[in-house]
Amino acid sequence: MNRLASLLIVLPLLLAGCASTPQHPAPPPLFADASFKPPSEPIGAQNLFTLSPAMQAYIHSPAFEAHLRSKGLEQGLIDALYSKTDLKLEYDSSRTRTAAETYAARAGNCLSLVVMTAAFARELGMTVHFRSVMADETWSRDGGIYLVSSHVNIALGHRRPNGLLYDETSEHELVVDFLPPPDASRLRSRQLEEDDIVALYLNNRAAESLVQGNVDDAYWWARAAVATNPPNAIAYNTLGVIYQRHGDLVMAERALRTALEREPESIVVMQNLGPLLAATGRPAEAAEMARRVAAVEPVPPFQYFDKGMVALKAGDYDAARKLFEREVKRAPYYDEFHFWLAVTLLRLGQAKEAREELTQAIDTSTKSDNRQLYSAKLAHLRRQSANSVQLY
Question: What's the pTM value of the predicted model, to 2 decimals?
Fold first, then answer.
């Protein structure tokens, strides 16, 4: 990452539990409100878990109550929310929503679905445990911004007749995972507090606003995230990225160094801080930061992909295929890699293999728009294949 425009945001990253979070001294002044326009929308998470009137009506509907009667409290709730016959919710990572927004849109990313499920579960008097799954982080890229994502899920339980809670290891607690990573059942998890979920929501909204080019709103969302959960490095990193995009390099460095104090081994923060040091005339410090990053991650995300795109544009399809295959191997759940591998295979005349990669792109995509695009291209390829058979 040697360009200041190549910024990294954590969306959302593993959080430290509140009980074990080390105490840090108060950071230097990190806010520059006067440098940003007022927000164009309300900023905050006051209604994050609030049920809308439509949700209240649904939870008291005969269909919903039938699910609870037939499957019990926890499984009945999940069947009611996520069966293909009722709400028909769709996974969509394009925007992090409140519980009410997720219900209205019938779509949400993993954090949105966790929030909506928690809102319904609490209305039913169930216990809720938020969890961060210790899986490998995944990378994506949008508008020159690299996004690093990790995984959250939720565990539901209920009270014993005497009012005591089942403990977390109880067989009566149901873990609900909306986009499980490979071998999710074998992975350890860390319990999150509600404040952590709120901070993740605010941080996600900041990142999404920045991707959309709305730097001012992004600032106010990140500011709210920092104010909500100040010991955490995630929001400080996002705030630093926003200052970089805004051209406030002094404030960007201040926020990023605060993030690094809280998470000294964070590759994400170092990858943001290194180019900033180079841009402000400190090449030796920037080189040392790059050395630390390379020791942990010698091949940056998207390196094979970017080289593959160069080869593809140059017409070297065999080289492009090999490079895309290397990127797919290390990031098999990122749809864009599968899509461009499919394009390359098609150029090589391997239509069957191209269709298989397009199918993988559809299956791994987390955005409805992309799924529609890939599906249309796959349908076109299948029609071409059918016509070819008829010609012969």
Answer: 0.82
